Structure formats: C-alpha cells, structure tokens
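User: Show me an example of a complex going from sequences to structure tokens.

Assistant: Sure. Here are the input components:
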Amino acid sequence: MALIYEHILYLEDDPLDIRNMQWLAEQNPGIMLHIVTDFESCKAYLASHRVDLLILDQFIHGEHYAKHPGLLNVTPYIILTNGSLQPSFLKEKPPLVLPKPLTLSDFEKLVGFTPDQAERPSLQNFDSIDNQKYRAEMLDLLQNEFKTALERIPIAVDHNKLGELRDIVHKLGGKFAFLQMKRTHTLTRTLEKHLAKGQLDTQQVFDLTEAISHALSILPKQSLRI
Amino acid sequence: MENSSYILYLEDDPLELIKFKMALSDLGHNIPMLNFENGQLGWDYLVTHINVLPKVIVLDLRMPVMNGLEFLERIKDHISLKRIPIIVLSSSENQDDILFSFDHQVAGYFVKPFDLDTYNEIISKIAAYWQSSKTPG
C-alpha cells in the first residue's frame, strides 16, 4: 500500500469510534494519528500543525461539519457517517464518504486515497519572510517560474525534448519545497530521475502541471514590488 | 595569494540565492557574498581576481554552461585555486555526484533539504565553517 498521508487528524466525539481509529492507525506504522473532539480544537490544530489528511464525522456534538467551511480549505478531507450524508447542508460534495465503523480494509484504501485535487501549497514559509524586498522578489520569482513552466512543459513534451524538460522539472523542485508540497516535490525528483534515463511518464507530467496550476492559484496575485 | 573573507556562491536558481541570503541575514552574520549563475562565470571571475580569492566556495552542481562538476574538475587542477575550500550544496543525492565531489577534495557535501528549518541549519554550519576555518596564507 502506498502511504500518501502521514499526519492524519481525526475529528470525532464518539469514544468508541476514536478507539477504533486508534487501533486502525496502530496497524499502519508510519501514520501519525492526532485526535480532536470538537471543531474549535480542530481549527486550532490545523492552524499550528502539519496535517496531510483530515478525517471527520459528519456531526460533531450534533453540529454538521458544513457549518465550519474554514476547516475544509486547509487540507484534503474525508467524511465518515453512520447513515447517509445530509445533502441539504452541502455546498460541495466531499472528496470521499465512508461508513462507520471504519474497517481496516477501508482505512487502508483511505490512507492511499488521493482526492481529486492537487496537493495544497502552504504559504507559511512565504509569510515568514520579514524582509519586504526578499518577499517581493520571492513572489515574482515563484509566479514567473510557474507561468513559464506551464508554457514550456507542453512544448518540451510535444517535441520530445527530455533534457529541456528535465531542466524545467529540476528547477521546480526547490519551489515546491518552499511551498511545502512534499508529494509534488517528490514527484519532481522522481520525474527528473526518469527523464535522466530518457523515460517520459506523461501521467507524472500531467500531475506536475496540475500542481503548478494549483500553486499558482494559491499565490498572492499582485506583485509586491515597491 | 591573499585570501579575502567573502563566500563565492555558484548557483543559477534565484530562489536558492534569496534563501541563501535570507538564511545568512537571519543568522546575523554580515558575510560578504558574491554570486555567479554558472561555473564558467565563477571561473572567469576567479582567474581574473587571483589576489582576492574567496574564503569558501559554495557550489551548486546542476547549472548551465559549466556545471558544478566541470567547475570542480577545473579548479582542482589550478595551482592557486585548488586550495579554496568548496562546499557542495545541491539537490542531487546521486552517489556518483557525491563520489566525484569527494574525489575532487570538497570540504563538504549537503543535499538541499525539503524544509526551510533544516536548510537554515545547513547554512548556519557553512557560516560557522566560514567563520572558523583557517585557510592557507
């Protein structure tokens, strides 16, 4: 099983379901499970810790998760439910819904599951730059590099210029590291190794361009140059 | 030959350069630094400024025109330049690159890490090396 998520946050108010999830996590070494039992603690945890996947019950203390949309902007999430999903509350369909109690088989599918969305970049490193000059330079650089890469990658692929593609991918790795996009950073390293051997995996290239587009959409839009 | 106290950083990626400057600045060290974006420009500078050589060279490996490995090969063959300590700072974990670098007497080899805290620790070690190492007079 490919382990995509290492840090899982579980929002649940039922002690039996919590115990079940702890047991499931224990069967999968490498997973760090963190438990919170209410929406406020969940928000606080998300704001201050790395979380790769949020798993939450549909209702916490009788309140529906959709009343806290801020929770769902931070990280991929999965909903657990005792019955059917309550559609009347939902503005958007969750990436995955699984029945409770969660089985080991479902859990293993879940930790290897990629929601239909690119990895979410973090602006934490960017926001930590106090020096306005460096901050402006960094933003311009990231925006330009990503835009240029989106233009150059399809041309390099169409013309089978693997050396050029490798150079583009190589330079993107550091940018994804800066935006803390671990999976995409790993993807650039893997893709670069394949390209060095003359191998082109078009699915990997597709995933990379999706990640670039997503990162570009998250970055502040305006230049910060003074 | 006179050794100056600056660091020569050969790196073509502007983001890496900003990270490097920020890390040095955060450490509070006022280390003079000069950057060129490929090995050829670095080489040209060194051979025309033979009397003011850097105390340490920080070297990326994957650069256009003349890459880091070619630069290493050339500098270690030069009578005056071969003693400048070189620290590789590269994203390459390739064993061949590491072996080649140490075969050419690098003073250290660091792989650019994923997270910024680890990166800052590495730059701190390079700064400490710069501060405390004795170089041939």
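The lines above are the inputs; the final block is the predicted structure for all two components together. The first helix of chain A runs from residue 15 to 26.
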